[in-house]
Amino acid sequence: MKCDVAIVGAGPAGLNAAASLAGWGLSVVVLDEYFRPGGRLLGQRYDVRQHGHTKVWDGMAVAAELERKARAAGAVIRCGTSVWDIEPGWKLQVAPGPEQTIEADALIVATGAIENALPVPGWTLPGVMTVGAAQTFTTVHKVAPGERVLVAGLDALALAVTGELANAGVKVVGVVLPPPNVFSGALANRRAVVGSLMSAAGLAPSRLLRWAGWFGRNRLVAAIAPLMAGMLPLRVWGVPLRFGKALVEVRGESAVESAVLRGVDSRGRARGRPSEVAVDAVCICGGLSPLTDAARLVGCPTVELETLGGVVPIHNARMETPVDRLFLAGNITGIEGAPVAIAQGRVAAASAARALGAGPPGGIEAELAAALQEVVDARAALPFHFISEIAAGREAMERVWAGAEAPVVPVPEPDTRAGAVADDLVVCRCEEVRYQDLAEQASDWASAVPGVKKRSRACMGTCQGRVCESAVRKLGRDRSRQLFPAQRARSPLRPTRVGELVPADSVERE
Fold it and tell me: Shortest CA distance to 286 belongs to which of 187, 429, 138?
């Protein structure tokens, strides 16, 4: 199959880009490995309060409208299809068929974000899941993740999903901090957590919490807020926010039966005796990172900017990259949210059309200018930020694009307050690689993920490191005191059957 533009990812960015391009007469194919279009929009439903008004953000309805526009314009959307290889030019190998090769003149990568793993003792038990999985269960499939649910993680993402669970009638017994260890870092530090939550005040269902977010801009209030958060009985949607408690273990025989909590002070240091609470589901939030493997596979250079969510392909505001006719859109450029992703999809479409000498009747430059302004407006209207310093991250990326050296990623000093990690803690779930094995490799000789991978099999399983690589890197940095680079993206990008790699009609039979 041949087309003018191929788009990898049928989320908000990819769908909006497809609608624009197809509307201008270009042939467009959108590819996504999920069974339906929409990406993370499908699980989003929450109230947003701004300027004294409340409105419902219904991600499923937004996704349906974007899909309708794209299909009406003539875009081809293929779901349940994995892109396992991309060759310059562009030639995409996909599975399953019927067409296994997609050739395009331009490529837009809109693969979105992936949740970071946060290993904790017992996290391999059935009933332990990420908050994103709980969101999908509840909002997309209308299935409660459990009868008594504990959420571990106090950030904007966890707060949004907690509201969705509570509004769906799920019994959430509380929201606590993740375990203070090498994997959680600032996510378990009450000072950092309270500061980041102040940017999510637009989600808060109570007037008290919304006022707290506003007053939190004051330095004095921001300084005492972590202490007060651990003392005051705060609730949202009737769910207690327990800033003074952290999850340290999940227990159960064949499934989740209880969670062990322990008190922590404002700096994340353990205090008091552990307590146990009966639950049958635990939802862990380790934050989001851009999913960049498709862009890295085709040689797009990257830079590590924690203020954008981690490793991000180098790009400019027009969604262009250093690779000819390769464009980006959405959370692959930094974790911001669906409204911004939708606007970025329009920008990427305009840039791709300009590169191909196409565009709307009014002129491509006018369209590009309008699309860039839409991104600015979308950012200004966001009710909350997943990353409180996202604006600084965007400025840093602009400097890198302009030719400045990438900022040096500091290696954090060992946190003596962090709790010890059990040697038998499973870090890589696919290959059942434990903490002790990884720690030995990182301490002895490995200086990057590939080194640990060769000696321990971590990141070699079905997920190919998409789940555990972030945890392996954090462990490696802590032990080696080096940056511990990620593994290279290689083909096949996704687990693929041999019959898809080598079609049957190409095999000579005796």
Answer: 187
Nearest alpha-carbon partner for 435 in 417, 422, 444:
422
Measured CA angle at 193 (ends 390, 212), to 5 deg: 90
Question: How many CB atoms within 10 Å of residue 444?
Answer: 11
What are the E-state strand segments in 141-269?
149-152, 172-177, 235-236, 239-251, 258-264
User: pLDDT digit string (tens) for 3-47?
Assistant: 999 999 999 999 999 999 999 999 999 999 999 999 999 988 877
> Which residues fall within 8 angstroms of residue 478, CB to CB, at 6 or more apart?
182, 412, 414, 442
Q: How far apart are CA 13 and CA 338, in angstroms?
A: 8
* Identity of the amino acid at 146: G
Could you tell me which residues come within 8 angstroms of residue 97 by beta carbon, excluding any fewer than 6 positions away?
A: 500
Quote the CA–CA distance of 279 and 267 in Å, as a whole number. 27
Tell me which amino acid residue 333 is: T
Bridge partners, 95 (sequence order) = 82
Tell me the H-state helices in 402-502.
435-444, 449-456, 469-480, 498-501
Which residues, 6+ apart, have CB-to-CB distance to 481 below 8 Å? 411
pTM metric for this prediction: 0.90
Give pLDDT tens digits for 438-451.
Answer: 888 876 667 888 88
Dihedral of the alpha carbons of 500, 503, 504, 507, in degrees to the nearest 10: -130
Domains of the chain: 2-115+289-401 (3.50.50.60), 128-286 (3.50.50.60), 421-510 (1.10.10)
- Contact of 49 with 76, CB cutoff 8 Å: no
